[in-house]
Amino acid sequence: MDRTVQLTAPAVPRTVVYEPDIATHPLHVRAARVLEDNWRGSSTVPSRGLYPHQWSWDSAFIAIGLRHLSPLRAQTELETLLDAQWGDGRIPHIVFNPSVPLDAYFPSPDFWRSSTAGRAAGAPRTVQTSGIVQPPVHALAAWLVHRADPGLSRSRSFLARVYPRLAAWHRYLLHRRDLGGGGLASVVHPWEQGMDNSPSWDLPLSRVTPAPARSFRRADLAHGAPEDRPTDLDYGRYVRLATDYRDAEYADGHGEFAVEDPSFNALLIASEHALARIARELGAPGTARHARAERLTTALVERLWDPAEGMFFCRDVRDGGLIRERGVSGLIPLLLPGLPRETAAALVRTASGPHFGLGSTTRLVPSYDLLGEAFDPHRYWRGPAWFNTSWLVERGLRTHGQHERADALREAALDIAGSSGFAEYVDPYTGEACGATGFSWTAALTLDLLHAESTHDESMHNEPMHDESMHDTGHVTQARGGKRG
User: Fold this and answer.
1) Does a cis peptide bond (omega within 30 degrees of 0) precede residue 107?
2) How far apart are CA 279 and CA 304, in angstroms?
3) 26-103+134-194+259-452 has which CATH code?
4) Each residue's pLDDT tens digit, 321-361
5) Domain ranges of the chain
6) Coiled-coil ranges per the record (predicted)?
7) 295 pLDDT band (50/70/90 cuts)?
8) Whole-number Å distance between alpha carbons of 425 and 411
9) Which of 58, 79, 261, 424 is labelled catalytic?
């Protein structure tokens, strides 16, 4: 194992026209077609069959890619999601399309009953949503979308309109969800963290009595192989948790499941830094938000870091202990520039070591420990590689000066995205497609990596998060070489 790691600190979309060799690149054309096929007029579905509604963190990643095709459409993607925000600040993990039949997806709107069960929490009355949340990538996405076309963003007051909503979203997580009392946000359902079926959930889920199998129908099995999906036992526990949360009118702090997750909190910290940049763009100081992000980074290390294992682990809030399962979530904090140098160095060693094999036995980052008892190269989040987590790790490697490793990961992601038909996830060893194909965030993040590769633009990855001078966005537009159309 390499232990030598050197660290350094809408109706007519507005289209961005890039240099011909980029815009006509076959991978660009194919990825753009996926996003066009999955566009529904004001938002993008993750896939046309399995996921026929709008998903929260999907839309954030999708917007990051859409900014290379149409900054207006990228802004609209985020605005549509934020229009479904609840009064208490939460952004729901699903915004339901009323034209989709109820039996097309479970849990459906009649399960969540957001407008009635969520009334006390301020659920919207004009749109049906779920009652749980997903990782807070949204402020980071909003900032990157703004930078793609600052002139358009300013003319539409994009940041001025989304900033208060994003600030309310973060307040909800930092106050209502600090269930462990240590400053970090907790998730109250595995679906909230986004890595639904991770072995990290097995211990806290073991306390949950599953809902009877006859009480729900799994629509996901009509679109994916049963051996690739969560088991019926795990799914029954997911349904039980969601039912109990709904029946408690979506009040936080009372359920059997509460976990502090490193990836969820790392994305919250990254988005806090992004909110600071947005505040400065709007003429307000961002120092308080940067300071909060640094405090959260300290809490993340104090509560979830295990120096002996070189990993961040989840913490079970209900019993207070770390859950010592090596999931990709424990590598995602690498994207934070405020990490201690020795912590970042250890994460790089862990990613490239035998448990994840990045750059040796695997080309993309597996979702779970290759040596773990629960490892399965095809089963949902128990081993397969996902493109969004590899995009985050690539960003983290570049943040900490690991450019050769980042370049190799970017090249692998582009190659496998194309060869797999923009799969939802893939076998980490072979790159074999699993789940849905034509998956939106895979296509979107392919575009982002492709454009970064084509222009050799490192500024979007390596920008110091606490540099108060970075409000000037003009140099980024120039570096990308794009022409605004």
Assistant:
1) yes
2) 29
3) 1.50.10.10
4) 999 999 999 999 999 999 999 999 999 999 999 999 999 99
5) 26-103+134-194+259-452
6) none
7) very high
8) 16
9) 424
